[in-house]
Design a protein that fits this description.
Layout: E1 11-16, E2 19-27, E3 36-40, E4 45-50, E5 68-73, E6 79-85, E7 92-94
Antiparallel strand pairs: 1-2, 2-3, 3-4, 4-5, 5-6, 6-7
């Protein structure tokens, strides 16, 4: 398996209900060796986005597009939800493939 280096990547594309946002990638929050993106919601939750697969080929490794997400309660630091992008439909579905 090829280990792609994401050191030059500065943003991650995240599809949020039909709107694509470019979020900065800064830290490896998930422990997979790749930098992740994060955003804070109005209700005080933080969403961590991880790029785990090439959406075009299905191969493991980043392609600059978010594949998994974890919702974290900012006050407690606990994961309160997760989602993954369905590769067939492109929609976010409940539950992540990898633990946070």
């Amino acid at each position: 398996m090829e280990n792609k280096d994401d050191s030059d990547r500065r943003t991650m594309s995240v599809d949020l209900g039909g709107e694509t946002r470019e979020l900065p990638v800064r830290s490896d929050y998930t422990g997979d060796g790749q930098r992740d993106a994060a955003m804070e919601t109005a209700d005080g939750r933080v969403i961590i986005f991880s790029d785990t697969a090439d959406n075009r080929t299905g191969a493991a490794g980043p392609d600059g597009k978010a594949d998994e997400a974890w919702i974290v309660d900012k006050n407690t630091g606990r994961v309160v939800g997760s989602a993954r992008r369905d590769p067939t439909t492109g929609q976010w579905v409940s539950g992540a493939d990898t633990p946070a």
